[in-house]
Design goal:
Keywords: Membrane, Signal-anchor, Transmembrane, Transmembrane helix
GO molecular function: O-acetyltransferase activity
Number of helices: 20
Number of strands: 13
InterPro entries: TBL, TBL_C, TBL_N
Helix content: 40-55%
Membrane topology: Single-pass membrane protein
Subcellular location: Membrane
Shape: elongated
Largest sheet: 7 strands, mixed
Length: about 600
C-alpha cells in the first residue's frame, strides 16, 4: 500500500500528470517575483541612483539626504522600506513631516540666536541661565553644539540690539558665557531691577513683555564685565611694559631717527629763552629735532603730557642747579603746556617772560594745582664774599654751606639737582684763593677735592632735611659739551655739526667729577636717583645752539661770529626733551611700585 502511494504520480493519467506542474509553476513564479521585487527594493535602498528625483524616491529616501550620522540613515532607510512593503503610507508621511519639521527648527536656530522659543515637546537647555524661571515664558534657544560655522544672520530684525552687539564682541553665545561663569545664577538674573515702560527692543525682539528687559539688563551686565575685563587686560599689558623698565638701564642706548618727534612744534612755545630758540634764530637744518633716545634693554614710553600732569597734580616739582637745569626746566614746561587746552592758565608766578638774572622762577599750571620751579644754584653750595686787608671783597665758594634757597624747596614733592659746568671755569679749575670752609680760605685746593667736599655737604643736607617717604630726589649728571678748537671763551666751535656721533669709540672719557658724585651717592641714607645723561649727550654734537644762540649780535660778535658759539647748552626742542622722557619713565615706575606696595599691604 505504501509502495502504491509512493508511486501515485507516475501511474496517473495524462491529465493529472500535467495539472501538478501547472500549480507548482504558479507558486514558483509568485515566490520568484516577490523575491526579485524585495531584492530590487533593497538594492535601490542601499545603492540609490544619484538621479532619484521623483517624489516616490524622495519620500522613501529623504531621511538619507538630510541625515548626518550613519546610524540615523540606516534606521530611516529600513523604516521607509517597511513602510512601503506593508503599505503604511500614512505613517511614512507623518515621519517625513516630522523630519522636515525638525530640519526646519534646526535651520531656524542657526539663523537667529537672539530670541528663539523652543518647541513645546523639547526640554529647555539646562545650562542656560534663563531656564529656572518659574513663569512659562519663552527663553533663548541654545545654538546646536555641533555647529561649526557662524550663522550669516544672527538677528532677524534690523535694529542692532545689545545682545547682537555682545555676540559680535565676545564671539560666543550667552549660554556659553553662562557655562564659563559658575558664580552667575538664575536667581541673580531674576532679581535684576525691572524697567517700567515698553521699549522698541521689547516689541521687536521679545515675544513676551518684560522678557526683553531682563535680557537687555543681562546683556548690559555682560558688556560691562567685558569692558572691565578689557580695562584689566590693558592695565595688565601696561604693567608688563612698566615691569620691563624696572631692570632697564635707561642711559645705555643710542639715538634713533623718529619722524614723530619733536614732542612739540618749534615756535609753538613762546616761553623758551632766545638762547635755546635755534630755529627762530635762523638755524636752517631741522633733523636734530627728529631723534629719540632708545635704551638697549627697553623702549622708553613716549611722554604723555596729559598723564604726566595728572601724576603731578597738586605737587611741586623743583629744579635746582645751573643753566643746564634751566634748559631741562624750560623743555618740561613747553611739553606740559602743549598738553593744556587753555594756555592762559599756564603762567610764571611773577609774570616774568625771560628767565635769566633772577634767583628763582615758578610756573603755575592752574588747572592742576601744580608748579614747576627753578632755583638757580650752579654749585649747589653758597657763593660767598670775604673782606681782604685793603677793605675790598673777594669772591669765594663755601664748600661747607648749601645754597641759601634750600629752605624754600626742602618740602617739595620732586627735586632735580645738577651741577658740573661751572666747575670747569678758570677760577674753579685753578682753585687758588677761592675755596672756603668756615673762615678758612684755601690758598690752593684741587678742583676734584673741592667738588667732593661740596657734594658731601649737599648730601648731608639732603639726609638731614629731606623726608624720602614724601619727596623724590634726582641728580642729573654732567651734560657733555662739544667745543672744537677751543673752549666756550676761547673760540671753540660746533656750528658745522649736523648729525650725531654714531660710533662709541669717539665719545669722551667719563668725567672724574661724576665718579666722585657716584661714590658720594652710594653712601647716602636718602634714596637719590641718578640721571646719568653724560653718555647719551656725548653722542649729540649736533644739538647745540652754536652760532644760532641769539638773533641780535653785538658789534664784537658781528666781527667774528664764529668765535662766539654755544656748544654747551641745547636747542629746544631737542636733547633735554629726552631727559624729561626719562624723568617721565621714572615717575611711572614709582607710581607702579607704590600701587603694588599698597595692594600688598
Amino acid at each position: 500500500m505504501a509502495d502504491a502511494t509512493k508511486y501515485i504520480p507516475i501511474v496517473s493519467d495524462p491529465k493529472s500528470f500535467f495539472s501538478i506542474p501547472k500549480t507548482r509553476k504558479t507558486l514558483t513564479f509568485a515566490y520568484a517575483f516577490t523575491f526579485a521585487f524585495v531584492a530590487f527594493t533593497v538594492f535601490l535602498a542601499f545603492c540609490p541612483s544619484p538621479n532619484t528625483s521623483s517624489p516616490f524616491f524622495t519620500n522613501i529616501f529623504s531621511s538619507t539626504a538630510s541625515s548626518t550620522s550613519s546610524t540615523t540613515a540606516y534606521k530611516s532607510q529600513l523604516s521607509s522600506i517597511f513602510s512601503f512593503l506593508f503599505n503604511t503610507t500614512t505613517s511614512s508621511s507623518s515621519s517625513s513631516s516630522s523630519s522636515d519639521s525638525t530640519h526646519a527648527t534646526t535651520t531656524s536656530r542657526s539663523t537667529n540666536t537672539t530670541f528663539q522659543s523652543p518647541p513645546t515637546t523639547q526640554k529647555p537647555f539646562k545650562a542656560t541661565p534663563f531656564q529656572n524661571h518659574t513663569q512659562t515664558t519663552p527663553s533663548i534657544s541654545k545654538i546646536p553644539t555641533n555647529q561649526t560655522e557662524k550663522p550669516r544672520d544672527r538677528v532677524v530684525n534690523k535694529e542692532p540690539s545689545s545682545a547682537s552687539n555682545h555676540t559680535q564682541l565676545s564671539g560666543t553665545s550667552y549660554e556659553d558665557k553662562a557655562l564659563n561663569k559658575s558664580n552667575h545664577s538664575s536667581n541673580g538674573v531674576a532679581s535684576l531691577p525691572k524697567v517700567s515702560g515698553g521699549s522698541p527692543r521689547e516689541n521687536l525682539s521679545s515675544p513676551v513683555k518684560g522678557e526683553g528687559v531682563v535680557h537687555g539688563n543681562y546683556t548690559a551686565s555682560l558688556v560691562k564685565k567685558q569692558k572691565d575685563g578689557n580695562k584689566e587686560t590693558d592695565s595688565g599689558m601696561e604693567d608688563e611694559k612698566i615691569e620691563a623698565l624696572v631692570k632697564c638701564d635707561f642711559f645705555d642706548g643710542e639715538w634713533i631717527k623718529d619722524d614723530s618727534y619733536p614732542l612739540y612744534e618749534p615756535g609753538s612755545c613762546n616761553l623758551i629763552d632766545e638762547q635755546f630758540s635755534c630755529i627762530q634764530n635762523g638755524r636752517p637744518d631741522k633733523d636734530y629735532q627728529k631723534y629719540k633716545w632708545k635704551p638697549k634693554g627697553c623702549s622708553l614710553p613716549r611722554l604723555d603730557g596729559h598723564r604726566m600732569l595728572e601724576m603731578l597734580r597738586g605737587k611741586r616739582l623743583i629744579f635746582v642747579g645751573d643753566s643746564l637745569n634751566r634748559n631741562m626746566w624750560e623743555s618740561l614746561i613747553c611739553i606740559l603746556r602743549n598738553s593744556v587746552e587753555d594756555k592762559s592758565k599756564v603762567y610764571e608766578a611773577n609774570g616774568r617772560v625771560r628767565f635769566k638774572g633772577e634767583a628763582s622762577y615758578s610756573f603755575i599750571f592752574k588747572d592742576y594745582n601744580f608748579s614747576a620751579e627753578l632755583f638757580v644754584s650752579p654749585f649747589l653750595v653758597q657763593e660767598w664774599q670775604v673782606q681782604v686787608k685793603n677793605g675790598t671783597k673777594k669772591e669765594t665758594l663755601r664748600l661747607d654751606l648749601v645754597g641759601k634757597s634750600s629752605v624754600q624747596y626742602k618740602n617739595a614733592d620732586i627735586i632735580i639737582f645738577n651741577t658740573g659746568h661751572w666747575w670747569t671755569h678758570d677760577k674753579t679749575s685753578k682753585g687758588k684763593d677761592y675755596y672756603q670752609e668756615g673762615s678758612h680760605v684755601y690758598n690752593e685746593l684741587n678742583v676734584l677735592e673741592a667738588f667732593r667736599r661740596a657734594i658731601t655737604t649737599w648730601s648731608r643736607w639732603i639726609d638731614a632735611n629731606i623726608d624720602s617717604s614724601k619727596s623724590m630726589i634726582f641728580f642729573r649728571g654732567y651734560s657733555a659739551s662739544h667745543f672744537s678748537g677751543g673752549q666756550w671763551n676761547s673760540g671753540g666751535q660746533c656750528d658745522s655739526e649736523i648729525v650725531p656721533i654714531k660710533n662709541e669709540k669717539y665719545l669722551k672719557e667719563y668725567p672724574p667729577k661724576m665718579r666722585v658724585l657716584e661714590k658720594v651717592l652710594k653712601y647716602m641714607k636718602t634714596k637719590v636717583t641718578y640721571l646719568n645723561v653724560t653718555k647719551m649727550t656725548d653722542f649729540r654734537k649736533d644739538g647745540h645752539p652754536s652760532i644760532y644762540r641769539k638773533q641780535n649780535l653785538s658789534a664784537e660778535e658781528r666781527k667774528s661770529p664764529l668765535s662766539f658759539q654755544d656748544c654747551s647748552h641745547w636747542c629746544l626742542p631737542g636733547v633735554p626733551d629726552a631727559w624729561n622722557e626719562i624723568l617721565y619713565a621714572e615717575l611711572l615706575l614709582r607710581q607702579y611700585q607704590n600701587k603694588h606696595l599698597k595692594n600688598r599691604t
